Amino acid sequence: MSREYTQHVPVMMDEVLRFLHPRSGGYYIDGTLGGGGHTSALLEHSEPDGKVLGIDTDEQALARVRVRLSHFVDNGRLVLVQSNFAHLTQIVDEIEPDFVQGILLDLGFSSDQMDNAQRGFSFSADGPLDMRLDQSLPISAADLVNTASEQELADIFWRYGEETRSRQIARRIVRERAKESITRTARLATLAAAGVPYKSGAIHPATRVFQALRIAVNAELEQLTAVLPQMVEILQAKRGGSESENAGRMVIIAFHSLEDRIVKTFMRREAIDCICPPRTPACICGHKATLRILTPKPLTPGTQEIEQNPRARSAKLRAAEIIMSA
């Protein structure tokens, strides 16, 4: 596979472009670069001089996009940074754009990552049990599986995967790892799916276990919680003489209920003035709304998109617009 090739299909592209509305002179952030599909579209729709800051923790993803979109890198319209979006404020402060008109987070994993057996994200092909987006992270999925206690594993499977068989699976893993370390995806999938009937086309019984381990290894929910208030602050800021014509917007695409719940709760909180506990006689919090929600209910892919890209089926898109202070 050539370094510039990507088999990833970006989800809900029309909706992303509709809400971010990229235009010439705008500055946009793609906090989850992946295969570069959304970034490429943002650049094309903001010609001739719109700019994009692309961020990803995955060095391989950055390398592919750097080759694929080299023209935009060379002319300065695309800046690529290897980091986690949880450090968004620090990254933006170093780049120093005059303003940011839109920020996108597509929280799904790219097909390039999922289909590469050596990354260990999927059980569709046997590979090392890794699951680290950033290879510099100290703990892999294999480390967790082989060192965490039975209770810790059960908690991970339940909290991050909502797996109802969490205790049973954790007990089986601990028993089997005492015989031999669990280092391959195929072996973990066999242990997680043991005793559960499976029909082709249905959700594989190991899916939630793999999801839970991936979330735990990469601290995905903690990173998402950390970045949301930073997005608001960045979209509110004016760092130089230029200003955007419209209020800044954020678009977030989640792929499972835990992520979507965090995004929904944050947006609803930031869309109201007072967050005092119920029955408080008078407001004492001083909180003022910072967001106007543009999607009262999350948008989901249409039937045609799901037929063309089945991995899009669980996507939920939420968008909000900054309320600029007077």
Could you name the CATH homologous superfamily of the largest domain?
A: Vaccinia Virus protein VP39
Largest sheet geometry: 7 strands, mixed
| Low-confidence sequence ranges | 1-5
Helix content: 40-55%
Provide the number of structural domains: 2
Lateral arrangement of strands in the main beta sheet? 3-2-1-4-5-7-6
The CATH class label of the largest domain is Alpha Beta
Under the CATH scheme, the architecture of the largest domain is: 3-Layer(aba) Sandwich
Category from helices, strands and their pairing: alpha/beta
Shape annotation = globular
Strand content: 5-15%
Can you put this structure into words, describing what you see?
There is one protein chain. By secondary structure, this protein is an alpha/beta fold. The protein has two domains: 13-112 and 220-322, Vaccinia Virus protein VP39 (Rossmann fold, 3-Layer(aba) Sandwich), CATH 3.40.50; 117-218, Orthogonal Bundle (DNA polymerase, domain 1). It is built from 14 helices and seven strands. The protein has a seven-stranded mixed β-sheet, with helices on both faces. Helix 2 (37-45) links the parallel strand 1 and strand 2 (51-56). The longest helix is centred in the C-terminal third of the chain and has 17 residues, at 220-236. Residues 1-5 have low confidence and may be disordered.
